[in-house]
């Protein structure tokens, strides 16, 4: 943030109108989701009837979700591809029309609000020192927005900002100490713990299970480290649970840390506004999801079968690709179902607010900390919400 004329450009009225417009956009987006779900349901129902009459059988290798995709269309009934094409085009056109209608509504909102010179402002970001002259700025913008009411030049206040941050840290420590002192002075007195039944054991119960919970590939680990051969003596139901459930959970945890890491890296860019920060986070996070979820999953789910077929007979390249590439879409079917279910569940239980409520009882010691956490809950991070 280099140069500032007056204040920020958006007034409170404009922010309220933009919020209403975005709520309308979310409502239309929900309508489009319901529409897509309806079309998909109808498509699945009709496909369930068609595959019994015109589809391929399991002897050909069509199983699971492949029975609902266009890879299950029989060779003698190619006209059934029109059903898939019409459904896809209908959904795409419907979503585009909804987006176009919402953008027009947003434009009408902006035109109805108007921009008043007394309530608007302009933020100038420039690396050149020449526009820092107030006279040049006033002369340049004299014919815009009814003239310039005031000019404020931003200065390099990093030293002052560091001192303010240090002062805020000292104030937080002082408030925490005062709150702890008042809490200790006002709480009721209790009796010390009396070991009447048994002595307290110093053994940490979780320590003996720490190694088992960190194992994801027991067979390979036992082959590398013979000292862990006793892991093979675990019950038969426990080994598949450890190998199958634990790795996806760890992967989900690592994936959930990616938005936090992206936001930390974007903050190092020292962007001039919160909107610019969210835009940069959205762009980088979308690139990560596109590469990780789309490209990597698509290639890894079909490359092994495709390479095996191509290696046996190079002349059957079109046939092998036509048979195996559509199967890669099964990953996205299951991914969309899982994502929709998890998003709906998290929205209904308000997981983020519930977690902040629990952390408030554990970590927040002063009234200022509780107020800051309650205010931060209402801040929506659109940079990670929209791509996800």
TrEMBL record:
<dbReference type="GO" id="GO:0005886">
    <property type="term" value="C:plasma membrane"/>
</dbReference>
<feature type="domain" description="CSC1/OSCA1-like 7TM region">
    <location>
        <begin position="213"/>
        <end position="387"/>
    </location>
</feature>
<feature type="transmembrane region" description="Helical">
    <location>
        <begin position="331"/>
        <end position="351"/>
    </location>
</feature>
<feature type="transmembrane region" description="Helical">
    <location>
        <begin position="79"/>
        <end position="99"/>
    </location>
</feature>
<dbReference type="Pfam" id="PF02714">
    <property type="entry name" value="RSN1_7TM"/>
</dbReference>
<feature type="transmembrane region" description="Helical">
    <location>
        <begin position="25"/>
        <end position="46"/>
    </location>
</feature>
<feature type="transmembrane region" description="Helical">
    <location>
        <begin position="209"/>
        <end position="225"/>
    </location>
</feature>
<protein>
    <recommendedName>
        <fullName>CSC1/OSCA1-like 7TM region domain-containing protein</fullName>
    </recommendedName>
</protein>
<keyword id="KW-1133">Transmembrane helix</keyword>
<dbReference type="InterPro" id="IPR045122">
    <property type="entry name" value="Csc1-like"/>
</dbReference>
<keyword id="KW-0472">Membrane</keyword>
<feature type="transmembrane region" description="Helical">
    <location>
        <begin position="286"/>
        <end position="311"/>
    </location>
</feature>
<dbReference type="InterPro" id="IPR003864">
    <property type="entry name" value="CSC1/OSCA1-like_7TM"/>
</dbReference>
<keyword id="KW-0812">Transmembrane</keyword>
<dbReference type="GO" id="GO:0005227">
    <property type="term" value="F:calcium-activated cation channel activity"/>
</dbReference>
<feature type="transmembrane region" description="Helical">
    <location>
        <begin position="245"/>
        <end position="266"/>
    </location>
</feature>
